[in-house]
Design goal:
- There is one protein chain.
- By secondary structure, the chain is α+β, with helices and mostly antiparallel strands.
- The chain is 15% helix and 31% strand.
- The longest helix is centred in the N-terminal third of the chain and has 9 residues.
């Protein structure tokens, strides 16, 4: 999950275009409906606590090992973004970060934030989630850990 988290945070939002031919290597932006048609799980989204001026959805290339969807919600005027990563990885690796609170659905979370971003990680119903927030091109955290917990609790 670490490389995906780093990848997600280092990506800039590209144009909001869709491609009829979905060559997903490198990842291209697609609609939520197109992403759901390509992955074997329902994509659940959070309530976003800021006005979204740009949204992008991508399926990330994992060399066929598992499915990974990245949704970026951004407010380009404020320089804010929230990135949701969902995977169905079966990897039984211990999460990195500091073990913290449980979500309302009893999922254990880990705080994976640093000086540049705030991030949490959890597993639920066979899926792995990461919620990452940043501002100023991910040079500064946007939300604190508790705020990310509140956002994660809105995913349904």
């Amino acid at each position: 999950m670490g490389p995906l988290l780093i990848s997600a945070c280092s990506q800039n939002v590209i144009s909001n275009s869709s491609s009829a031919h979905l060559d997903l290597s490198p990842p291209v932006e697609i609609s939520i409906d197109e992403a759901e048609a390509k992955v074997p799980f329902k994509i659940k989204q959070p309530s976003i606590p800021f006005q979204v001026t740009q949204k992008s959805t991508r399926i990330l290339d994992t060399n066929g090992k598992f499915d990974a969807v990245e949704i970026t919600y951004a407010n380009t005027d404020e320089g804010s973004n929230l990135i949701l990563m969902i995977t169905n990885s079966k990897a039984d690796t211990p999460p990195t970060g500091k073990k913290r609170l449980k979500l309302a659905n009893s999922s254990q979370t880990w705080d994976q934030g640093n000086e540049h971003i705030s991030a949490i990680y959890w597993r639920n119903e066979g899926l792995t989630y990461s919620l990452i927030s940043g501002k100023n091109n991910n040079l500064d955290p946007l939300y604190d850990y508790q705020s990310l917990i509140e956002i994660a609790n809105t995913i349904n």
